[in-house]
C-alpha cells in the first residue's frame, strides 16, 4: 500500500487536521473532530447538513462554506458517521428555519441520520441521494447508491438555502435535483482501504469495471479496457437511459475523477461524453470537470448528467465559497 | 497502460477539445490548437504568456483567464511548444504594454521561447522559472527545473499584470517570486507517457523517489517508503535549505498532487508539512492544497514554499477566474 499517510488508524484525524489548518478562513472543525462547519454560522437560513464515510474527499467536508453545506460529518474511511456526530453538527449550525439532511443511499448512513432525526425535536427534513445508474445490487446499499451526483445536489440546494428558500422548498428542490440526476462510473484500478492494506478488488491490466461504486463495489460488468470514446458511450448511454431524457434537453455534464486519474484524462473523457450527449440530442449548457467525489486513489471516472430547468440552472450558477469549490 | 484516452498520438488534440468545450466562457482555443487564450482579450495590459509540454494539466492551459495567464502554448506530451505556437499566442493577446514570457527551466522550452523572442519586434521580457530544490542534474534541464512553483509565479504575476503593473515591474516581480520560491517532490509511482506505453521508471512496492521531477526525472535519492510525516520533514527541509529562510518568516505553503494521489493524502501531507515548517520557525500565512501541476498519473506530491512579502501576498490574494483556479 503506497499512500502519503501515517498510521492507518489515524488517517481520518490526520487529514482533517491538515484540511482544517489549510482552510481556516472558510471552515472550522469541531474540537472532537465530529463535524466541519462553515466559519460564519448563519442561523437565519435552512441549515444544509451532509456527511458520510471518509475517503471521498473533497466530498463532503470540502464543500462546507458559503452557498453549499453548513456542516458535514466525516465518518471513518468508508464508514458512516455516528448519530452523535450528526446531533453535534445540527446543534452547531441549525436555527429556526430548520435543517435539511442530504444523505447518500447507504444503509448505515440512512440509519444513523434517521436515528439522529428521531432524537431531535426541531424542524428537519431528509433527502436520499441515489443517483448511481450503475445498478448492481450491493450489500452496502438499498437500491441505487449515492455517488458523484451528490456534488450537484449539494451545490444546487446549498445555493437555494443561501437564498433563504424555506425548508419545504429546499427539500422539494433536493428531491427534484436527485430525480433529474444520474451517474455512471468506470474503474481502471481498485482502491486500497488503509486499515485493510490491500486492494478491495483486482482488475487485470486489460480490464475495466463499468458501473463501479465509490467504495469499489462491484459494477454492472467487467469489460476489456476501452478507449475514452467507447467508455464515454457506455457511461452516457446508461445515464440517459436511467433519466428518461426528452430530446433537446438542456443538461449539466459533470465528469468526475475517482482520485487516481489526472485532469488530462478527465478533459479527454469530458470531450467524448459531451459528443455522445450531443449525438443523442442533448444540449450541454453547464459543465464541470474535476476530482470532486473520490474513492481513495482509485483510477477511473464517472459521468453525471443533470436535466436542468430554470431553478436548477440558476442555483447551479450562484456563488459558492468552500475549500474545494469556488464560484 | 490504463488511461482514459483514445489513440495515444491524438491525446493532445482530444484533451484540448474537451477542455475548450468545458470552459468556453473563460478561454478560447486557437483553431489550429496552437494556444489557449483568455476569452476577453485585454491589450491594454502586459500579456502574461506561458507554455510547455502537456501532461502537467491543469498547468498551463487551466490557468488562462482573468488574473493569471493571457495565453498558454501546449506542446505535445512532455515536449516543448514550437516557436510558431509562441508567436501565434503573442500575436493573439499582446498589445502596446508588451508581453512577459514565464518559462520553466527546460532546455527545449528556453530555446523555443528564445527563438520566438528573436523573431519578435515588440516589448518582451522572459523570466526563467527554476524552483525545484530536487537538484539532481537531468538531461532535460540546465540547473534547477521548473516545477509546481510555476503555479505560484503565474498567480502572482498574473494578478500584477491585471492590476496594470508595467512590463519591467512584472518582470522584476516574477524574478523576485521565483527567487523566493522552492519546491521538492516525492514520487510513489512512475507515470506512463502514452506514446511510450510503459512506465518511465519503476519503483518497488516499498520504495519512493525523493526530489523527482515532473517528467519522472530521477530525484535525489531512492528511499524506503516513508510516512506522510517523514516525507514532509524531508521535503520541507530541502525546500527551506534552498531558500535561506529567516526565522519567523511568513510563508505560503502549497502542497501539490502529481496526478495519482487523492485529496485525502494531500490534506494529510499538508498538515505534516505545515507542522514541519512551524517547528522551523515559519508562519504559514497562505495555503494551497490540490492537484495543479501534474506528471500525468504519477502518484506523489510536492511541497512548495514561497517567502511572502507585502506585494507577493497581495497579488496572491487577488481575484482570479480561470478554468482550474477561481478566487
Task: Characterise this structure.
Two copies of one chain form a homodimer. Chain A is an alpha/beta fold. Chain A folds into two domains: 8-179, Dihydroxyacetone kinase, domain 1 (Rossmann fold, 3-Layer(aba) Sandwich); 181-310, Hypothetical Protein Tm841, Chain: A,domain 3 (2-Layer Sandwich), CATH 3.30.1180. The first copy, chain A, contains eight helices and twelve strands. The first copy, chain A, has helices at 11-22, 83-93, 107-119, 149-162, 167-179, 228-241, 263-279, 310-317, and strands spanning 27-29, 36-38, 47-54, 71-77, 99-104, 124-129, 181-187, 207-210, 221-224, 250-257, 283-290, 300-307. In chain A, strands 1-2-4-3-5-6 form a six-stranded mixed sheet, with helices on both faces. Chain A has a six-stranded mixed sheet with strand order 9-8-7-12-10-11. The longest helix of chain A is centred in the C-terminal third of the chain and has 17 residues, at 263-279. The radius of gyration of chain A is 18 Å and the shape is globular. The two termini of chain A are 36 Å apart. The model of chain A has no long low-confidence stretch (mean pLDDT 96). At the A-B interface, helix 1, helix 6, helix 7 and strand 11 of A face helix 1, helix 6, helix 7 and strand 11 of B.
Amino acid at each position: 500500500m503506497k499512500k502519503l499517510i501515517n498510521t492507518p488508524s489515524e488517517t481520518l484525524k490526520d487529514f482533517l487536521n491538515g484540511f482544517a489548518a489549510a482552510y481556516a478562513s472558510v471552515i472550522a472543525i469541531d474540537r472532537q473532530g465530529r463535524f466541519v462547519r462553515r466559519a460564519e454560522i448563519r442561523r437565519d437560513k435552512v441549515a444544509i447538513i451532509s456527511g458520510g464515510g471518509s475517503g471521498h474527499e473533497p466530498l463532503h467536508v470540502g464543500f462546507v462554506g458559503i452557498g453549499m453545506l453548513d456542516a458535514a460529518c466525516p465518518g471513518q474511511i468508508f464508514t458512516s458517521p455516528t448519530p452523535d456526530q450528526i446531533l453535534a453538527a445540527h446543534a452547531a449550525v441549525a436555527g429556526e428555519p430548520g435543517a435539511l439532511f442530504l444523505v447518500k443511499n447507504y444503509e448505515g448512513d440512512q440509519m444513523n441520520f434517521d436515528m439522529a432525526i428521531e432524537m431531535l425535536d426541531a424542524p428537519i427534513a431528509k433527502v436520499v441521494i441515489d443517483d448511481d445508474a450503475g445498478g448492481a445490487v450491493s450489500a452496502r446499499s438499498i437500491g441505487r447508491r449515492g455517488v458523484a451526483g451528490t456534488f450537484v445536489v449539494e451545490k444546487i440546494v446549498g445555493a437555494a438555502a443561501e437564498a433563504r428558500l424555506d425548508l419545504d422548498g429546499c427539500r422539494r428542490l433536493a428531491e427534484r435535483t436527485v430525480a433529474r440526476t444520474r451517474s455512471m462510473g468506470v474503474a481502471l484500478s481498485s482502491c486500497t482501504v488503509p486499515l485493510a492494506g490491500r486492494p478491495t478488488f483486482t482488475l487485470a491490466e486489460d480490464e475495466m469495471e463499468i458501473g463501479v461504486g465509490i467504495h469499489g463495489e462491484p459494477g454492472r460488468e467487467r469489460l476489456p479496457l476501452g478507449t475514452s470514446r467507447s467508455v464515454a458511450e457506455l457511461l452516457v448511454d446508461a445515464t440517459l437511459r436511467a433519466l428518461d431524457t426528452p430530446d433537446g434537453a438542456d443538461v449539466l455534464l459533470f465528469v468526475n475523477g475517482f482520485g487516481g486519474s489526472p485532469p488530462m484524462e478527465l478533459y479527454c473523457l469530458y470531450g467524448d461524453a459531451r459528443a455522445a450527449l450531443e449525438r443523442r440530442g442533448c444540449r450541454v449548457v453547464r459543465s464541470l470537470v474535476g476530482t470532486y467525489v473520490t474513492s481513495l486513489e482509485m483510477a477511473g471516472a464517472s459521468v453525471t448528467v443533470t436535466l436542468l430547468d430554470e431553478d436548477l440552472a440558476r442555483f447551479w450558477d450562484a456563488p459558492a465559497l468552500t475549500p474545494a469549490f469556488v464560484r
